[in-house]
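Pilot study result, target chain (387 residues):
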Amino acid sequence: MYMQEEKNNQTSRVRKQSFIGKVRITIAAITLTGSIVMVVGGASGGEILDFGRGLAMLSVGIMQPEGGVQALNERLERIPASGGNNNYDLGDSGGLSYTPGGGMQTSGELGSSSLISSGVVPAEAGDGGKIVEQKFDPGTGFVQGVAIKNISSRTIDIAKEIKIPPAIKITDSSDPQVLIMHTHTTESYMTYYAGYYNANDSARTKDETRSVVAVGESVSEQLRAAGIGVIHDVTLHDSPKYTGAYERSEQTVKKILKQYPSISVVIDLHRDAIGQPPQKVKPTISINGRKAAQMMIIASVCDSKTAPHPSWVQNLRFALRLQSSLHTQYNGIMRPLYMVDSRYNQHLTHGSLLIEVGSEANTVSEAVYSGEILGKTLAQVLNSLKK
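Predicted structure:
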């Protein structure tokens, strides 16, 4: 009986592989033909990218297991289009109302709960997967406390650039000088750690006490305590529509910068997603006896005709100083500084960075603690740049 079932399974796999091969060829042909037609028809780069994304999602839906579509969707969104429709309605409220020492400002629709973590660990339902706690290597070949992972097309002289102060203007003023925001506002964390997760432990939520918003507020509190004016904008950019979040967050940042030209630093706070479904990995380190989520700074070093970013080196110098300070004061808290050719809206100021705090498998308390560490260190770096 077993032998017959195995033979049938092999026949089924061969047929499936043959079908998938034909689908791949068909999708490739459609992509080529469709792209040519769109170019001739005068389609924008963003429209062509959306067309390609749609076919990529179709391909993954056919050929990958459950979860593959969401994973590819998130990876595609990490590379925003340089063009496309940026008509994003931010409302008619006239902008944010900033109060020195005040808390979050938002034009989004967020919910909240009274507790970050109830301390209650649900039983394993068997419909989720395992969570593995892992301490990621902080890197090798350190230069003044900085290890890098360079997947960009540039070769960077770290020793040279870290010595040059970034062109960031920080002053003794009650005006806002830092903007904390979230392109993927609904990225969430776990409320417990038991070595597993259940299907209802969503990786996205509008509950700001379980999302990157809680981490952003933790960072903001430390900046306020250090006397640095900060706006924490929690506008939803990834819900109800995920695709196009970077274009929408760009418009949010531009509007706030126009309203508050005193802002010279913009931190786009995210969390990572690590592991192969159904397994998830949470990057964790013990700092002063407490578990903290390991962090990663992503610095754009691109500058091209389609994605101009001529002042990328200023952002990099800022990233190097922050990375060095975090590593030397909290050994192991940082993963290597990640240098990429994607822009991530870092062209908007000389002090724009994308920072990943933990992963979806970390607990909220671990991520919030890391936010506290990030906020304290960021305040130190900025105060050292005061003029």
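One observation from the pilot: The radius of gyration is 22 Å. A full batch analysis is planned for the follow-on phase.
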